[in-house]
Amino acid sequence: MASSAAATRRAFSLLGLLLLGAVSCKSQDVAGVEAGAADLSHRRRVLQNPDLPSQRASNPSWMSGGSGGSSSSGGSSGGSSGQQQQQQQQQQQQPASYASIPVGDVHIYHGGAYGDGWVDGSYGVRPFTDYSPAGRTGGVARCNILPYGAATSFYDKSAGDFTGRRALELFVYRGSSDTPMPDITISLAGPSTACAATMHFSSLLPAADAAAAGWVKFWVPLDSAFGGGAAGGGAFQGCPAADGSYLSSGSVVKVDLRNDNSAYDALVCVDDVRLAA
Asked: How far apart are CA 152 and CA 128, in angstroms?
């Protein structure tokens, strides 16, 4: 009986030791799991740190790899984006280009009003005062009586209006078609000298669209008439001057309508005078 009781006590002791070991192991396992969870939580916080480039929402797709993209596709996108940035930088470094501004006509005189920068530079004339001569389309025409050597003159105070222009256009009042026109000289001049070449009314043919009601339109190509260029040439560049120098287009500032005929005083009425581009 004593031997049986001793065996029973040893069995219970072993069972107790086993139970204690199981509880100890379970506690260790729980502690290990909790410790592991703490480590993983710390890992997640590191991965979600916005200081890491891969976690910034503002990064381009090639840096973060895109949504669901592989590393190889991310590298391809990075190369494409890098090329675009390089192209943009090259475009920014290139000098800016500007569309050229078209050259327009310059109005010298119309209906009693002078164009911007233009004034009356006439000399030796007797103003026509018998009545107020009507302009071609309204207003007042510019009428002067020109003794020998006198000129109705238009002066450009600002200078430079001849640059880029091709022709001088003006309307001259003749009256009836059988009335002879005075042979007036057209001259261009700078501040101190004039173009050597001149044109005369008699050498010009009225333009095809000559106005009715007594007005005649003249079209004078500047480059061929004064600059020595070919007929139908381009914009006026300048002219050889009477003193042997050369007047550039920017130095020409006057249009003279001069009476070089000593046989008579000429009555000349003009309107719609302009430089055509």
From this structure: 12
What does DSSP say about strands 118-120 and 113-114: parallel, antiparallel, or unpaired?
Answer: unpaired
Give the pLDDT confidence of 130-150 residue by residue, as tens digits.
999 999 999 999 999 999 999
Task: Give the residue ranges of DSSP H helices in the chain.
Answer: 2-47, 61-64, 71-93, 222-226
pLDDT tens digits for 61-90?
Answer: 544 444 444 444 444 445 556 666 666 665
Burial readout 204-230 (b: 16 or more C-beta within 10 A, e: otherwise): bebeeebbeeebbbbbbbbbbbbbebe
Contacts of 120 (CB under 8 A, 6+ apart): 114, 153, 154, 155
- Cα–Cα dist 135/71, whole Å: 82
Which residues are registered as beta bridge partners of 122?
Answer: none
CA distance 220 to 204: 8
Could you say which DSSP state residue 152 is in?
A: E
Between CA 62 and CA 82 the distance in angstroms is 9
Beta carbons of 207 and 196 less than 8 angstroms apart? no
State how far the alpha carbon of 26 is from the alpha carbons of 18, 23, 29, 33, 232, in Å: 12, 5, 5, 10, 109
